[in-house]
Amino acid sequence: RSVYDGEEHGRFMEKLEARIRNHDREIEKMCNFHYQGFVDSITELLKVRGEAQKLKNQVTDTNRKLQNEGKELIIAMEELKQCRLQQRNISATVDKLTLCLPVLEMYSKLREQMKSKRHYPALKTLEHLEHTYLPQVSHYRFCKIMVDNIPKLREEIKEVSMSDLKDFLESIRKHSDKIGETAMKQAQQQRNLDNIVSQHPRISGGKKSKKEVCASSDLEVKNTSPMSEQDSGILDVEDEDEDEEVPGAQDLVDFSPVYRCLHIYSVLGARETFENYYRKQRRKQARLVLQPPSNMHETLDGYRKYFNQIVGFFVVEDHILHTTQGLVNRAYIDELWEMALSKTIAALRTHSSYCSDPSLVLDLKNLIVLFADTLQGYGFPVNQLFDMLLEIQDQYSETLLKKWSGVFRNILDSDNYSPIPVANEEVYKKIVGQFPFQDAELEKQPFPKKFPFSEFVPKVYNQIKEFIYACLKFSEDLHLSSTEVDDMIRKSTNLLLTRTLSNCLQNVIKRKNVGLTELVQIIINTTHLEKSCKFLEEFITNITNVLPETVHTTKLYGTTTFKDARHAAEEEIYTNLNQKIDQFLQLADYDWMAMEPGSKASDYLVDLIGFLRSTFAVFTHLPGDVDVHSTMSGKVAQTACMSACKHLSTSLMQLLLEAEVRQLTLGALQQFNLDVEECER
Questions:
Q1: Which CATH code, of 3.40.50.280, 1.20.58.670, 3.10.129.10, 1.10.30.50, is assigned to 587-680?
Q2: What topology is assigned to 396-418+454-568 in CATH?
Q3: 233 pairs with which residues across the strands?
Q4: Higher pLDDT, 407 or 190
Q5: Residues 311-354: pLDDT tens digits?
Q6: For position 550, what pLDDT does the model report?
Q7: For the chain, is the Cβ count within 10 Å smaller at the N or the C terminus?
Q8: What distance separates the 2 farthest-apart alpha carbons in the chain?
Q9: Helices H, strands E: what count in the chain?
């Protein structure tokens, strides 16, 4: 810097040149000192070059030989390298295939299961495929296709299982009556068993109750596993003979479609949808089942089919309730049963009201009891059905009264109104066996002899007993107390006596052309029937085991009925006599202007007195118990005689006082006096 600043370039260069020269001299001096060593070194180096050339030639030669020898090795090594690469690729491929093959096998298995309609196992396979196998090989294109197909397969499984369920629902709708028929047969067998057990308590050990039988059959239902592959529907069952054991109602049905579908929808997270669909469809079916056919009341089979369908419906629902968790619940079943009960009772009230045949009403009652017992065995409350049966009982009584009205009419119309002749002891005992009659005087008389009453007495008495039996039949299995049964029978019997029999007797008494002999016989007959009322009381007491002294026991009104009939018959006798007297008086032909009286009483009056004499002979010659009938007929005869005399005297007085008779002669009055004296005589 100081050289440039002081502009001393020239001087500096000179100094620098001098310096260089000094160094050169020192270098030369040093080289001269070491020159020999340098020459020796060069000589040595030249020797080394020669050796090195030899060495190079040897190395080159060796290298050439090595290259020639190594060519085959290199080729072998290349082949080895290629082989190793292939081996590694094969190993990698095997590993990848090991991962892919299970996926493909599972997918193939899935398609096979779908094809053979094994939908629940297919769904399980789909789950494994989706969550276990596919994630390991998700980068392959075929796996992506599978992943895309999985939702479609799920939907397909869902649709097919729903289709199976629809087939099942349709099938059980069609076969409800068969299921119900079987359940009611079981209930009937159980009831028969219970009756046998109650009669023979010693053999009751080991017998199951109906509920236990049903519960055990629930546990034994086949093909209810969700893995079951059977088609939906009803299993074929041949009609069994009465003696053979009836299969359990649940054994007739393959419930596997319901279980499969429920499991499938549960796995797919759509259980609530399935439950709602199932309940909705079964509600619709319930409404169809509860709709009675319009002609149901015509035959018992119509009612039986209706009941079978209802029982079949609820047997299926009860089984579903106990074998699935929550598909249906108790509240849902109770709601359905309430609806069924109200509709069934309404239908029965309507249709039973059309029924006029008491035997059909009785069969219907037995069918309703069996229907109620069957459903009660499955835990359904049936008290309302028994309450309704009490309503049908009133209707049954009415149909019985109509039927017995015809029976009584036929008996009364076909009767000859003559005392029953008895030719021998056998006939006598037969009649006494039919009607409670005891008469020491009659027993002492030799054969042939006659009972005081006509044939309608034992016939009517037996028909009253038949009516009581018919009433008793209806009260069986209604779970009524003895007092209630007794009360029911007595009330119905009272209606039979006071309304039906009473009307029939009145009609016979009031009909045209009834003879005095018939009326007298009716009086005698009703007297005997009146006495038999105490035996009817005893008869009812014997079959109901309720003593007549029991509080609130209804008394029979038979006595009143027969007294009223007897009084009506007596009145009819008096009326008939008076009408006959009027007919004779119409023949009276007095000549009020006659100058001389006749020598004897008028012809019409002689005929009239002859008629009255023969009429009263009927009363005095009545057969039977002298004490009873002579007293009774004598009383009727006395009253009839008084009535006839009073009517005749009044009528004769009217003849004199008629407006047409304007004047009388003494001769006419004397003739009239002759007639009155004839009457007095």
A1: 1.20.58.670
A2: Tetracycline Repressor; domain 2 (1.10.357)
A3: 254
A4: 407
A5: 888 888 888 888 887 788 888 888 888 888 888 888 888 877 77
A6: 61
A7: N
A8: 238
A9: 23, 4
